Amino acid sequence: MQARRCLLLHVEPTTYLLHLLEHFSPDENFVYQVQYVTQNKSQKWDLKVETERVVCTGSWLRSSIRALGLALRILEGNYDVAHLAGWGHPVSLLAFAALKLRRIPFSVDSDTQLARNRHTVKESLKSMLYPMLLRWPAAVLPGGTRQANFFRAYGVPEERIHIAHMTADIERIEATETTPRDEFRRAQNIDPSTTVFLYMGRLEPYKGTEVLLAAMDEIEAPRVLLVIAGDGSLRPMVDSYVAAHPEKVKYVGGQPFTGVVQWMRASDALVVPSLSEQWGLVINEAMSCGLAIIATDRVGAVDDLVHSGRNGQVVAADDPTALASAMQTMLDPNLRRSMGAESRRLIAPWTVVRTATCIKNTLASISGFQLL
Question: How many C-alpha atoms does 215 have within 13 Å on its Cβ side?
Fold first, then answer.
């Protein structure tokens, strides 16, 4: 049997995606061609990839020509099967349509959850268009339970839904060497008995940064510290709060990968106060480091990964009092330790290998054969 020619179209190269793609080497079943829509879209990743793999690069005219070139390769039958990371970008949607016209089987993954308010004009248009559009993929691969419900709401039948388990590279995290917890804390002038809450993410309104600082105003317990790692438009507000409350909040800026792991291992609980969050990979990362998790009900990962009372707490979004109450609960060190251990247990199966296997099995299924 000749190996199938497979197109893998992703939005942008990210650290975890490159590690995922390491599991897609050519074999007797598939020969893969990886394409990216753009680079550094969500943040400045600065990862080295071949320029010819990126569609939207350079001028608008050059990007348009490259996009049309991708569509023509699909229409000419250069691929036997494809996997697309979403359809939100015009280039992805163009490939989506070209694959349909050429009758090439393809799968689509997504981390999207249903909008909370489905009565807007935008959501009404989606309710008309998506049921038609989502008939085209031979399979859809949602990141988790809430994302699967998104596809179900738009009429995708159960047999075409294959949960791919949105994941971080927890194997890499576990293999990362960092300074021992107590030693690192001493270097950062953090007392070993202090309860450290960690916020790791962009400093933007939709991330709930202001809500988190308001919650800190309600916490009066001694030896409690919030560490904020990240950057964004709310940085001046964070700087002002730190200047006024240096004993309660420590700002450490954006962190490289090792720094992310180091701070997670030195902390006691992760706080994700987002007002809107399709998934929240920081939860996967923190769970692999053995942290208890506090997250809002707007975070797409919570249905699968955060179980109130077991490995953390899920609270209502935009409610500083509820957030502060959950944080107060985490001041019990025995509870934090048991929740952290449960986080490690729950996240253990959520590996890059499992995600890659799910994608490969789906591609094989829609191609009409069993993997060798």
Answer: 28
Q: Report residue 164 as tokens.
A: 């791919």
Give, as one character, the DSSP assignment of residue 226.
E
Q: In terms of Cα–Cα distance, which of 165, 168, 158, 164 is closest to 141?
A: 164
Please say whether the beta carbons of 281 and 166 come within 8 A: yes
Residue 93 DSSP symbol: H
- In 3D, which of 117, 70, 103, 102 has the Cα closest to residue 89? 70
The two three-digit tokens of residue 241, written as one number: 């709060």
**Residue 96, CA distances (Å) to 83, 140, 222 in order:** 10, 13, 55
Give me 263's structure tokens. 């701070």
Q: What is the pLDDT of residues 34-86, one digit of tens each?
A: 999 999 877 777 788 888 899 998 899 999 999 999 999 999 999 999 999 99
What band does 1 get if pLDDT is binned at 50, 70 and 90?
A: low
Beta bridge partners of 34: 8
End-to-end CA gap in the chain:
10
CA distance 187 to 90: 48
pTM of the model: 0.93
Check if the beta carbon of residue 163 is closer than 8 Å to that of residue 192.
no
3-state secondary structure at position 21: helix
Positive or negative, the CA dihedral 175, 350, 354, 164 is negative
Q: Mean pLDDT over all residues of the chain?
A: 94
Query: What values do phi and psi take at 102, rounded to 5?
Result: -85, -5
Domains of the chain: 4-167+351-367 (3.40.50.2000), 170-347 (3.40.50.2000)
| Element holding 133 (H helix, E strand) | helix 121-133
pLDDT at 371: 65
Instruction: Give the SS3 label for residue 162.
Output: coil
Tokens describing residue 268 = 């006691």
What are the start-end ranges of the E strands in the chain? 4-10, 30-36, 81-85, 106-110, 139-142, 195-200, 224-229, 249-251, 269-272, 292-296, 312-315
Residue 118's pLDDT is what? Answer: 78
Tokens of 221: 């317990």
The DSSP letter of residue 78 is -
Cα–Cα dist 124/93, whole Å: 19
